[in-house]
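Researcher: I need the complex structure. Ligand is cytidine-5'-triphosphate. Inputs:
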Amino acid sequence: MKEIAKRVLIGITGSISAYKTPLLVRELIKNGIEVRVAMTPTATRFVSPLTLENLTRHPVAVDMFDERIQNDGSWHVHLSHWCDAMLIAPCSATTLAKLSSGNCDNTVTALAMSLPEKTPLLVSPAMDTEMWLHPATQRNVRSIEQDGALVIEPEEGELASGLYGPGRLPEIDALTSHVLKLLNRMELISQNEEMMRTVDAALQQPVYDLQEGVDHDAFDAELELQHLKESLPISEQLRGRVVLITAGPTREKIDDVRYISNHSSGKMGYALAEIARDAGAEVVLISGPVDLPEPDGIRFESVESAQEMLQAVQVHWTDADVGIFAAAVADYTPVAPANGKIKKSDEEVEFVLKKTADILAWAGENKGNKAVIGFALEAENGLENAKAKLEKKNADMIVLNMVNQPQSGFGGDHNTITLVGKHGEQSFDPMMKTQCARLILAAAGELLGSSKST
Ligand code: CTP
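Model: Output:
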């Protein structure tokens, strides 16, 4: 397979969502893309150029006269010819106006104007709803599209102002996927003259229309999948090993139509299962009820209650090399679940609950040479509690996340984790659950490596 184009120039402009751009840059780098950054002076009020310099390991172009970027004074020509594509994200209303009128009074617009004709410009506007819907903004969007820019429609949702409407910067994974798809498509262009004409026509469409074309194009999707797989930074230690994972919530029966449960989405456990599978592991996924499709290529056990989950773990435990206990298991279950439906009669009703079996603790007691990894969702004293759990449950590592942190815990696509081991801990910035899964599995691989040598 031919390499996809790999160099992306990111222009950041003055919208509050600029604070998300380090995550975007990091995600692209993790996908094997080389990234350079230019920022408008206003953007530096929302995100520090230093953070982006550290991530890209290159000076960020903010000031046109910055000695570090000069390259004999033709810095804009060098950078705009260096990249395979440029993405402006977030793109403010002001920058849209400047792009539309050809105003080059900052590094971002100067670079966009200097791009060679064949280099695509992706633009991801983000602003308050009224600004986005304003006729002047819409006119500028149409005008830059006519000039060949590919505009990513902003998402609808809650905005920094507290208002709700279109104007949000798309999530980082959506932006990453726009960039990867564009680069893959460009690779096809260089590979195939015949295809080039069709693709060129598609490139004239806004990216959200392009998506449809991409979906129909299995060849394209395969290239992207292959590329993503190649970028997995997971050690070879997991290849051929059996990784047992619990995921999702449990349901504890009250009667035949009611239960006690929680909001766990299962996303973390499913991400672990898919990434472990792609790293060559044999995966056993034991899942409570979730809305996610059963992943291909793994052994899958669907369970309801904590007791059923424990039994499924016990059945598969002998074979396992690693156990990762990501499920949000109910801590208590009704002592006497009723058959049928409990009728409404008394003003108050009491249920007696008993503790469920602690599956992680059971695995810790029956550990042998296996690596055991648990999770801890904490509201306070996170590190202290995670260390106590590590000890009490005889685990090798606890993945700590805090209830009250943004981008953490149940539901969303992101998590903010600290890996707590016997010899110390490491905290990470918020990242996608798939990326958390890679870190956890890399640590699992190391645990296996060290247990083999002792
Ligand atoms: N766990 C388990 N079986 C249970 C309860 C929890 O396997 N019956 C696992 C979870 O999958 C997770 C870890 O234990 O890996 C969470 O530890 P736990 O002490 O149960 O955390 P909390 O439920 O948050 O406990 P507490 O409310 O006491 O903090």
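Model: Summary of the prediction. The first strand starts at residue 7 and ends at 12.
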